Task: inverse folding
């Protein structure tokens, strides 16, 4: 009796702990012995599936109230139709073709550009198109931080709910960075990627970098024919190590070139390039072959379909698309959101951040990830169309570009025409970082170039590339869609699974079962076994009592 | 006052496409554009409700540029004056002088919408240019947000306030006027070690006193 009085508490706690111990976690030999004595335990159904809350998807295909998708005749420029749901502003396209100094006030206002965004001057060779081109670029931060709000400002979503911090070169736009006074969302022309720029071989081109950002930047014309110093002896290469000081915030600098060689090139900032280029300060820089009456669309905002292709392009192709692939490191982009002080941001990005320990998380095509790629980056054509794709891989990883349903042919690499013998059909092309490929895509149903009309995905076939931070489908998936398979709204007539999941931020935040739409009985989230949970709680309580009595006895013994 | 700022800060993201279309259309009517810049929603003569006459004419010149942030730690851009004070019903003719080589704006928010579409008056000056615009302030004592709406310019220094009459309290984050709402802590490098050392020192002190 005395034993129990002295030791009742811990003995009781031990008994409760052993009884509460969930039987499925008894040691294996003990379970087998118990089975020999008593047989299997009675049937107890596994927990019911949990009905996950209903998700409300975004509108897949936003309406086009301004009619921007239709073919348009603006300022005498024929802007071709754009099949996908979301199209570029045709007034901006026309203003880029004519020059923002050569269009009416109405067109300029509708374009959203400033009067000096892209100015075009004299026709120096008398072939019917302007040869003096002056392009202005600003630098804008998307999804940056703020000392007055915990939400990012100038918001730009690459996929539902995904707002990585980014920097872009931007066309010179008049007015606000956001879509209206009450909004925190970037206007549609202020976006990633940096615009694809098109100039003509032999043109006298000035590119002014107006550094509207809070860090130093430069412009480096990667692969485009330009001199190391300009006529005045000033550096012209944009490389602070060797040619010039960077452009400081609020400052501007003009780079010049008169390229002798045509091809698909690249431009990027060369200040701390391992950070600045990977933040998005990079774009396609295309030098078109010289032709008479070659009025070029000097900028292609957001890349994608070229609504006014060059004369040389029209000679050989029915359509042309700029495809800019870029991968992003989430942890790098977050650094501009973490604080507002440029000194702290600079330290965080250029000293604390270690790219050699980094991974990439987001994979974009023309500034968007799946499913937003399907709103604006579909390649749409009809049978026997011949389509030119200018592709750049601006990401840190390589790109294994794969087309379903088609074998394509690379005609040029890094802006240089390949010999005929090297132009072979292939269905995976490897593009190293910053490498470019001009691709001929032939919608010819001959079993080699194309297998049939339909909706055929094209994507990076490295598997991280088809995810958004590890959630698939995401990343840079887009599609080649034949006209018959695209609705009037621009949305492809897919006949597989529901896309409702993919148009919610919950899906990309890992909060929705992936097969909810077509396997609701099978693959919903499993429920909770409350019996095991209760036993664990009781076990924990008993262990607590045991520990306390042990501690008390040690203290008592020492004090005696 | 702080309440008002909070409301301003928390203005939800309202992005109704149709409304945008209408607002843009309005802007176009009240907008002048030239190579020097843009003035939006200029108003030289329509009196706001409750105003019998123009109480006073102000001619103001405000400079903007990187140089005005040289003496402000942690800022990149600045106005030479971040606060403008005027009388109710006064007419303000403001010249924005841009001393940078990039665009800048001086934009007032929250004005009455019956007079200023989207409640906004806006001057944008191109790099190296100046641009002048006129507007008439309402009768109420109120403080209005003034900023440059280029990406990150407000955050990096171009945030001010227009105080009409006695105003309605200072807004957060106006350089030289009010503190930032979200501040980094700016601690020395080995703060964590020092904090742990301080806690241990406290424990040690108690032990020394109690168990000597």
Result:
């Amino acid at each position: 009796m005395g034993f129990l009085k002295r030791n009742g508490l811990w003995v009781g706690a031990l008994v409760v702990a052993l009884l509460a111990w969930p039987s499925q976690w008894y040691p294996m030999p003990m379970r087998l012995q118990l089975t020999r004595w008593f047989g299997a335990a009675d049937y107890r159904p596994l927990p019911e599936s949990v009905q996950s809350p209903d998700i409300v998807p975004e509108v897949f295909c936003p309406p086009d109230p301004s009619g921007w998708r239709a073919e348009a005749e603006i300022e005498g420029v024929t802007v071709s139709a754009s099949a996908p749901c979301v199209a570029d502003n045709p007034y901006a396209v026309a203003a880029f073709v004519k020059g923002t100094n050569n269009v009416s006030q109405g067109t300029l206002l509708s374009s959203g550009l400033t009067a000096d965004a892209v100015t075009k001057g004299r026709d120096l060779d008398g072939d019917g198109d302007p040869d003096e081109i002056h392009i202005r670029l600003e630098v804008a931060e998307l999804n940056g931080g703020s000392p007055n709000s915990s939400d990012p400002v100038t918001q730009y979503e690459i996929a539902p709910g995904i707002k990585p911090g980014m920097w872009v070169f931007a066309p010179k736009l008049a007015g606000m960075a956001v879509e209206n006074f009450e909004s925190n969302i970037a206007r549609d022309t202020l976006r990633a990627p940096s615009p694809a720029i098109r100039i003509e071989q032999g043109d006298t081109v000035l590119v002014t970098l107006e550094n509207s950002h809070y860090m130093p930047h430069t412009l480096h014309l990667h692969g485009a024919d330009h001199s190391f110093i300009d006529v005045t002896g000033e550096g012209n290469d944009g490389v602070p190590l060797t040619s010039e000081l960077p452009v400081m915030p609020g400052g501007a600098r003009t780079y010049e070139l008169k390229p002798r060689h045509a091809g698909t090139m690249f431009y990027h900032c060369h200040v701390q390039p391992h950070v600045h280029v990977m933040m998005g300060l990079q774009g396609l820089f295309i030098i078109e072959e010289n032709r008479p009456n070659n009025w070029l669309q000097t900028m292609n905002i957001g890349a994608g379909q070229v609504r006014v292709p060059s004369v040389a392009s029209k000679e050989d192709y029915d359509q042309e698309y700029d495809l800019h692939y870029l991968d992003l490191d989430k942890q790098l982009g977050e650094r501009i959101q973490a604080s507002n002080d440029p000194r702290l941001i600079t330290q965080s990005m250029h000293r604390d951040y270690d790219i050699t320990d980094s991974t990439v998380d987001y994979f974009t095509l023309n500034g968007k990830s799946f499913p937003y790629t399907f709103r604006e980056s579909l390649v749409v054509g009809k049978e026997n169309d011949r389509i030119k794709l200018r592709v750049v891989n601006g990401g840190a990883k390589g790109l294994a570009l794969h087309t379903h349903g088609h074998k394509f042919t690379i005609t040029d690499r890094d802006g240089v025409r390949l010999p005929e013998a090297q132009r072979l059909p292939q269905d995976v092309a490897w593009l190293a970082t910053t490498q470019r490929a001009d691709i001929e895509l032939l919608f010819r149903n001959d079993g080699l170039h194309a297998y049939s009309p339909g909706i055929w995905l094209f994507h990076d076939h490295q598997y991280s590339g088809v995810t958004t931070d590890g959630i698939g489908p995401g990343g840079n998936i887009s599609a080649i869609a034949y006209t018959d398979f695209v609705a009037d709204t621009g949305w492809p007539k897919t006949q597989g699974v529901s896309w409702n999941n993919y148009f919610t931020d919950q899906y990309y935040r890992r909060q929705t079962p992936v097969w909810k739409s077509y396997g609701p009985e099978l693959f919903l989230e499993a429920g909770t076994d409350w019996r095991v949970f209760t036993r664990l709680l009781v076990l924990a309580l008993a262990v607590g009592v045991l520990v306390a009595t042990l501690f008390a006895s040690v203290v008592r013994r020492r004090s005696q | 006052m702080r309440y008002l700022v909070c409301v301003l800060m928390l203005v939800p993201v309202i992005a109704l496409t149709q409304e945008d279309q209408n607002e843009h259309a309005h802007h176009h009517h009240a907008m002048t554009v030239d190579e020097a810049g843009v003035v939006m929603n200029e108003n030289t003569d329509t009196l706001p409700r409750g105003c019998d006459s123009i109480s006073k004419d102000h001619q103001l010149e405000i400079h903007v540029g990187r140089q005005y942030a040289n003496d402000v730690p942690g800022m990149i851009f600045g106005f030479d004056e971040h606060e403008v004070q005027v009388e109710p019903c006064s007419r303000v003719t403001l010249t924005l002088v841009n001393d940078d080589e990039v665009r800048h704006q001086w934009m007032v928010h929250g004005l009455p919408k019956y007079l200023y579409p989207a409640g906004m008056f806006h001057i944008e000056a191109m790099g190296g240019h100046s641009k002048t615009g006129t507007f008439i302030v309402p009768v109420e004592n109120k403080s209005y947000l003034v900023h440059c709406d280029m990406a990150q310019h407000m955050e990096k220094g171009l945030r001010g306030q227009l105080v009409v009459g006695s105003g309605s309290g200072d807004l957060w984050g106006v350089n030289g006027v009010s503190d930032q709402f979200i501040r980094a802590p700016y601690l020395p490098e080995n703060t964590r070690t020092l904090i742990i050392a301080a806690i241990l020192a406290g424990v040690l002190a108690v032990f020394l006193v109690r168990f000597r």
Summary: The first strand of chain A starts at residue 49 and ends at 50. Chain A has twelve helices and 27 strands.
